[in-house]
Amino acid sequence: MSPTMIKASLMAALLLSGAPASHAAQARPPQILVDCSGAGAGTAVSSLADLNAMRFVPGTRILFKRGVTCHGSFAPRAGNSGTAAAPIVVSAYGDPAAGRPVIAAGCAQAATDSDQTLTDRARTPRGVSPYHTLCRSDGGDGAAVARAAIHLYNVDHWEIEGLELTNDGAGEGARVGLLVQLEDFGTGSHYRIRDVYVHHVRGYLKDAPGGEHGYKETGGILFNITRRAVNQRRTRFDDVVVENSEIFHVDAIGLSTRSAWMCRPGGAPCGDYPPYKTGAATLSAAAADEYTPSTNIIFRNNRIHDIGGDGIVVRTALRPLVRANLLHDIWLRAAGNSAGAWAINTDEARFEYNEIHHVRYQEPWEPGDGMSFDADLGTRGTHIVSNYSHNNGGGFMLFCGCGNDGLGHPAQASGTVVENNLSLNDGRRAIVFAGSQSAVVRGNLILNTRAGLSAPAAENTGLGSKNAGDIRDNVFYHGADAGTLFRAVKPALRHDDIRWSGNRFYGYQHSGEFTAGQFFEGDTANTVLPAASYDPDAAMRQWFAATRFRERSYRR
């Protein structure tokens, strides 16, 4: 055996045993090669079970061989953290032409679908389709469901890049592609997910009665903070970046953050999370002081498509940034309301330069989601700017405060700003008010050029204690000269909290709603003109040029 191989074998043995390495060995962070093919060199780790048994020092590089599939779950032990100066890196080695290394946590025997055509062909013409498994065998009766292909539990300072992750199954289960979970940890810092391909993750489509995990705890890439009791250590994420990755054909959520440290006055319902949801603790007024938001969350330049439920959700966070993502074919399977990208119980979320299209609207939900964006329960200061939304079944924008915090207060969306976006042929209605304390919708292009699409400018559902919004300086265009202002879910519903100022309505001149008692004009007069007096194509060209959207949006 050569001296290099002897040194590598010694380092692997030290890592496996947990014994301290020498000072000389620690001078260069160890590199661990993983080859599950059975044909690897003697220095390579040959199974995930052996890898999971190791202790990793800061700076360790864990490299999976390209073109090789490891079956099972990579779940390092709690405490295996890197440092700010020396994060633990998971990446690939070998011939780039061989393809990505794969970690397959689900069935051991599966068809391949490298170009996604098998899965795409299984979709119905309308698009709302059952999950399409690639499994030929699910591993036999009683086979355990792996929680995730990669499950990082109570570790931080990790970077993961260049891998392919699956967690398929013949039936639904509590599955995730990549799960980062903290519990009683404090602040977990520095997580980098780059160029990771997650696909065919068969999670849940609705909550299973008595199940440990809700359906929104299953899906592609999830950052989840859990609790089991009241008197635990406050925990949050800080410095999370997910970028340049693809999530395809997963149930139920594409990319998400969650936290059980989320109770606050006016926030999302505290009883939705353990320990209160499970009855392990009694929800009292003391819970109002538990809010511990995650910080420095960035989701950028990811492609997320063929998703059973929601595309991107940020929860219990401060100033998260969702930028330049491409989301399409969303809400294809889940039983509950879903949307493209949205925030809940979060302050100052910013969504910019995202393209979202073909979010489905599923009957019989009423009033129903299916839109691009949503400022949901307990959001404050959400900013949605310079995004391109088109061909979404449920519309463009939802304000949802239709509930309470579990502490006796309404959970409103407040301070939302929606500006300089392009909405093209978003169906059912453009803007939905289902509980808004305050909002400004200004300077947007909301265009309807598709024959037969009515898409009223706004809908006031009657849900939530207040539905307030200042809709100003927007362009609403209906190419068939048949535009309508409101869709009233309840016939007697009033819209007295919505003010319309300085908008231009093209193709709405036959609507009597502008002089009806339900139309409340703001500080600047609105203009109503025929559709023929407006050029939507020229307006779109100008919008794309002014925003430099093509340069700033998703790039493959």
From TrEMBL:
Right handed beta helix domain: residues covered: 294-402
SUPFAM superfamilies: Pectin lyase-like
Signal peptide range: 1-24
InterPro entries from the UniProt entry: Beta_helix (IPR039448), PbH1 (IPR006626), Pectin_lyas_fold (IPR012334), Pectin_lyase_fold/virulence (IPR011050)
Keyword Signal part of the UniProt annotation: yes
Organism domain of life: Bacteria
UniProt KW keywords: Signal
Listed name of the protein: Right-handed parallel beta-helix repeat-containing protein
